[in-house]
């Protein structure tokens, strides 16, 4: 198998382009999925506190790293700060809880999950008074605590998730330690070329989430008649041409754009198939056809943060 592509960081660290996502992976399944992934060549696992399964992911890390064949230093592990821990005094304790759950001494990458702040202990707000506004808890306050976590050696790299170009520019203008990474929704229905260009110019590595269309997320998060990526006729046609699956085309496209990508699966066959996605090259014709699919469609709209009285109605600044 040819070596996997990586995204390089200023200090020489490399983030493997294809990782295993763990959002929506059930507690009973995720330990096994992470074990399967690591034992079949994955070197990148993406986690988050709010996924509610970091303890189970940690069991897989403990087992696999304990066996000794795969070393901790050879696997890139990302996690994310949840919205209820944005106050400066809450950031490092939240990170330490994630490290405890994942049974790790450090993370390779720690991301601010959303540019949204909740009151402490709120999993998901049900009313306005469970939110802080970004005036009450500014992004820069949270960011400075993440910078401190990096200084303490708890994380090697820090970044953000679900940030627009506008929010990135604003943060960069206020800090000497700019984000090293951005994780956002990206797929053929949502190319976000301008955002990618901005990140490229500013040395920010990008990871694509929901690359396959996130069809297994909660019904409450779905729009009526939303388009399917895996059933898109153009994607299926290109897949047949390359003797690949539709999922492999979507993952390959993300990697060829220079992003990392984190498809989630708990199915052994699919986990292996996803990692093998970069075993061929999409040609100019394929890329031109996929270019035509961009309709700026989001599966994860962010509208679940909007309540009548809060200030989160246009989270992506569009």
From TrEMBL:
Transmembrane regions: none
GO molecular function: alcohol dehydrogenase (NADP+) activity
Ion transport keyword on record: no
Keywords: NADP, Oxidoreductase
Top-level taxon of the source organism: Bacteria
Keyword ATP-binding in record: no
NADP-dependent oxidoreductase domain sequence ranges: 18-295
Residues noted as binding substrate in the record, renumbered to the chain: 113
Residue numbers annotated as active site: 51 (proton donor)
UniProt site (Lowers pKa of active site Tyr): 80
Alphabetized PANTHER family for the sequence: ALDO/KETO REDUCTASE
Protein name: Aldo/keto reductase
């Amino acid at each position: 198998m040819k070596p996997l592509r990586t995204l390089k960081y200023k200090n020489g660290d490399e983030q493997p382009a294809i990782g295993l996502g763990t959002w929506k992976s059930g507690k009973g399944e995720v330990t096994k999925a992470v074990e399967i992934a690591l034992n079949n060549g994955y070197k990148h696992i993406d986690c988050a506190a709010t996924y509610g399964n970091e303890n189970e992911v940690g069991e897989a890390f403990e087992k696999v790293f304990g066996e000794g064949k795969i070393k901790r230093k050879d696997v890139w592990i990302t996690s994310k700060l949840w919205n209820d821990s944005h106050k400066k005094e809450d950031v490092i304790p939240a990170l330490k809880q994630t490290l405890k759950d994942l049974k790790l001494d450090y993370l390779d990458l720690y991301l601010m999950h959303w540019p949204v702040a909740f009151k402490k202990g709120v999993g998901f707000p049900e009313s306005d008074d469970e939110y802080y506004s970004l005036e009450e808890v500014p992004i820069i306050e949270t960011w400075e605590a993440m910078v401190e976590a990096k200084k303490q050696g708890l994380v090697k790299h820090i970044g953000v998730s679900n940030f627009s170009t506008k929010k990135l520019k604003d943060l960069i203008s206020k800090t000497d330690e700019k984000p090293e990474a951005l994780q956002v929704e990206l797929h053929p229905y949502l190319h976000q070329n301008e955002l990618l260009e901005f990140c490229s110019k500013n040395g920010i590595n990008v990871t694509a989430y929901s690359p396959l269309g996130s069809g297994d997320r909660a019904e409450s998060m779905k729009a009526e008649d939303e388009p399917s990526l895996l059933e898109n006729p153009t994607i299926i046609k290109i897949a047949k041409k390359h003797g690949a699956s539709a999922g492999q085309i979507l993952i390959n496209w993300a990697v060829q754009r220079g992003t990392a990508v984190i498809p989630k699966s708990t199915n052994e066959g699919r986990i292996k198939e996803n990692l093998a996605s970069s075993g061929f090259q999409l040609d100019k014709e394929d890329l031109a056809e996929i270019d035509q699919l961009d309709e700026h469609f989001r599966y994860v709209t962010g509208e679940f943060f909007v309540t009548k009285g809060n200030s989160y109605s246009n989270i992506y600044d569009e």
